[in-house]
Write a structure and sequence with these properties.
The protein is mostly helical and 66 residues long. 64% of the residues lie in helices and 0% in strands. It has one domain (4-53). Helix 1 packs across helix 2 (21-33), helix 1 (4-13) runs parallel beside helix 3 (35-53) and helix 2 (21-33) packs across helix 3 (35-53). It is elongated and about 60 Å long. Bound molecules: zinc ion.
Length: 66
């Protein structure tokens, strides 16, 4: 069984790389019994999606005036 520390590390690593099958299984198993890490993953998912949908770039308005 993963510890919470390992589970949160895998959760954040999953944003950047594909986890191995055993890692995914261990993580999913841990998330089933640990509400704290479930909440952590929900927040990570939210942040990850927010970054993808709203990439950081200059506001279009600022480029209008020459
Ligand atoms: Zn946990």
């Amino acid at each position: 069984m993963l510890t919470c520390k390992e589970a949160t590390r895998l959760t954040s690593e999953a944003q950047d790389r594909d986890l191995a099958m055993m890692e995914t299984l261990g993580l999913e198993l841990h998330l089933m019994i640990c509400s704290g890490c479930r909440r952590y993953r929900e927040q990570m998912d939210f942040l990850h999606q927010a970054c993808q949908h709203h990439p950081v770039r200059p506001a279009p308005d600022e480029k209008k005036s020459p």
